[in-house]
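Researcher: Can you fold this with coenzyme A in place?
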Amino acid sequence: MDRTTRSMIAGIGVAVPRKIITNYDLEKIVDTSDHWIVTRTGIKQRRVLEKGRSNVDLSEQAAREALDRAGLKPEQLEMILVGTITPDYPFPATACLLQARLGASKALAFDLSAGCTGFVYALTVADQFIRSGACQNALVIGVEVLSRIVDWEDRSTCVLFGDGAGAAVVTRTNSGRGILSFDLGSDGRGAELLMIPGGGSSFPTSRETVDQKLHYVKMNGNEIFKFAVRVVEENTLNLLKKAGFTPADLDFLFLHQANLRIIESARKRLKIPPERVPVNIDRYGNTSSAAIPLLIKEEMDAGRLLPGSLVAMVAFGAGLTWGGVLATW
Ligand SMILES: CC(C)(COP(=O)(O)OP(=O)(O)OC[C@H]1O[C@@H](n2cnc3c(N)ncnc32)[C@H](O)[C@@H]1OP(=O)(O)O)[C@@H](O)C(=O)NCCC(=O)NCCS
């Protein structure tokens, strides 16, 4: 039996806001149509966080469920990593706010900014800490409140995104299960393809930056689309190769949910049947770093994702960044 020390996801939890915004609701706000959104993106509705709640509220809800499922107490956590681009504040980190909420008194805590690749990047960091022996149990969260950073007058972006959180308790194991390989990358030459220009040290918030709407997401959708289609295939193949597998071996490819056409194109290039590449973009839109844990939770709850399954988690996003993690579930 394989007794290699690895890290594995021992519990998953999710949180999505109750409020649903359909494409028909958006038709009343911007010049768009349900037909355009469904045919170009696959999205039918998205969740939007209620006023008065924030990132840490969603994070806490997802984290508590993940801890319950893993059978761990917050005091047993040694690190909390929050992958997000919509923290509660520019600083301190939302991970620290969460650490206090949970009473995770032994945990170091920090946020990680890798756009929609946030969950995969954070999972890989936790994996390194665990396999090096520096820590036993980590909490990894992918969470976004994108509704607070999109311009609800810009039809090219506001129809795409949704809010949500997914949490994973990651723990050391010698069971033969766990993370087998990872493949992360970045290309900052594409930084301006997807960004919020204002509010940082380049363009600190001022009356002018607000008038120019620099505090909202700016995106070159066509270029991101081309980048995504290319990188998903390369990334998935690299990830599998590192552990000696091929796409045919995969039980599940949990792919970032940015556009149904990106998902379908990657799936066909990799020759993986549809039932192995789950989709929930129709119901949640692009929830950025929350998308992959949300997908995993659905497959677990449906009884389809079982111990021993070979799963790849693959994402791409702002930075530009991309990354994949391969694991035996
Ligand atoms: C954004 C995206 C859906 C646009 O789809 P597309 O097929 O490339 O559409 P285009 O941008 O070429 O726009 C086509 C037309 O639709 C219009 N359009 C854009 N948004 C629209 C909307 N919500 N409703 C109706 N029309 C819209 C455009 O203005 C354009 O009109 P024009 O031809 O008169 O100029 C697609 O490029 C995409 O998904 N890109 C990736 C984005 C992404 O994943 N970002 C996050 C990465 S993590």
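Model: Folded with coenzyme A in place. The chain has two domains: 6-176, 180-277+300-328.
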